[in-house]
């Protein structure tokens, strides 16, 4: 269509009318068809011809999306990307912190695939994870603080037992303790150790009115007598089947003391020749559980850590409180020097300063002349310094008193008597 006056210049400046567009749903091969041309309103003689010899401007490449680049991280970590993909991924890692962290983790994982690398996990990993869980998880039942060491140590031992194989339940274990002036030992198996723990825990069960694993006729026999009766009464040597009744018994003990009320802490537990209140009895059972778990771990080459610092401190404190009575008992048997002074009950007497170092450590003063005497720093005549675990090994009878790595100062006779009294706290 021309202008009003038909001027050629007006016609040349007239807008072009575009051709019809292809339908969006037309899936025909567009490259095979000629593209629609624009039809000018009128022929224009003055228009310059279109140049076809100029190269078409290449469209700039669109960078891959975040999702695409994230999916390439695994291939990038394995060095399996093309050069272009590698460049795109590494450029993206400088801008995206989450992908950068994931890329580092994948590269570390690739290192484990090296043929010369040991694929075994850190042997201490399980114990660290378990310790962290036991220290942080909320209790399902309101376990009293004095029962927590027993709860923790039975759980740790159960985790060890879950990890060992069928044949390792019959691995030989030598139990050690101290009698009089010399060490003693007894050989059994891993399953035999669990049976020993179960039968002695039965003394706590009977004090709470629960079933005794040895039956109603066991009475108030000593821990050693109960263990010998269990080992000799079994038709066959204990196997891994002893784990379930032992663990069920420990769970029942924890539930019972947790719901029994405050008075249960002072309930008396008889051990044959001596007795302990329930709060100290469960702490003593936690100590025995740890000691024998360590015996099992040594027998099957399993890494095992000492209890937490707070629980270890409670165990050391119990041993320190039992030392004056143990020292008096050795005197009655002629195994320790007689007291140098007669001290009235409640009066201060000679004392020994026990300094325990490391996790769970602290300072204790041990009455030397009478269990009823008051141990005072002002009347200390000797000092012994030991590592916490070393002291517990002495109390367990695993370290002879003469070989205990102890720093000593002061009255040598008092120091010897206290070290031997500590070892005498042990038993089968």
List keywords for this structure.
disordered N terminus; 3 domains; Anti_sigma_zinc_sf; 4-stranded mixed beta sheet; 428 residues; Zf-HC2 domain-containing protein; elongated; Four Helix Bundle (Hemerythrin (Met), subunit A)
Describe this structure in words.
By secondary structure, this protein is an alpha+beta fold. The chain folds into three domains: 47 residues, no CATH class; 173 residues, Four Helix Bundle (Hemerythrin (Met), subunit A); 115 residues, Nonspecific Lipid-transfer Protein, Chain A, CATH 3.30.1050. It has 14 helices and eight strands. The strands form three sheets. A four-stranded mixed sheet has the order 6-5-7-8. Strands 1-2 form a two-stranded antiparallel sheet. It has a two-stranded antiparallel ribbon with strand order 3-4. The chain is elongated, with a radius of gyration of 41 Å. It starts with 7 loop residues before the first helix and ends in a 5-residue tail after the last helix. The N terminus is likely disordered.
